[in-house]
Amino acid sequence: MIMRMGELWGTSIPAYLAVLAALCFFLPVSVRLSIIDIRTHRLPNRLVFPSFVAAAVLLLAAGLFLLDGSTMLRTVLGFAAMFGLYVLLRLVYPAGMGLGDVKLSAVLGLYLGFAGWPAVLAGTVGAFLLGGVWGLVLLATRRGNGETQIAFGPFMIAAAWGALLLVP
Question: How many domains does the chain fold into?
Fold first, then answer.
């Protein structure tokens, strides 16, 4: 997304400002969601739903400012792909994926979709890699077992921000 922001600065200041506003809105919310999820294993709707609306409005507005239908479509498809995957995981194994994680995937899918398909892939795979490593650490230190529930939202958020910052 860093490269994308540079491109936006050179082509459309309104699009740049819309994306910047979306990122600036979500940064403190993502920190708050991570802390809440770690403490309570919940991702409150009062934070997730406004984040979805803000991301959808601002990122799609950026696509409009660019007059770029492909960016808008990719943003929506990124949302649909991530949300669909998490819904499927929830349906297949309800105990393994919370509804808060499913709803958060919709928000992250918008951001990652806007950034591009490599970001969608990196953010999605990265969350499961980070969560898996944490699970292995819990097993290795005997602080958990195969039944231990972990807050997955922070891994989703960390992987998404990693993808937004590092994936070209």
Answer: 1
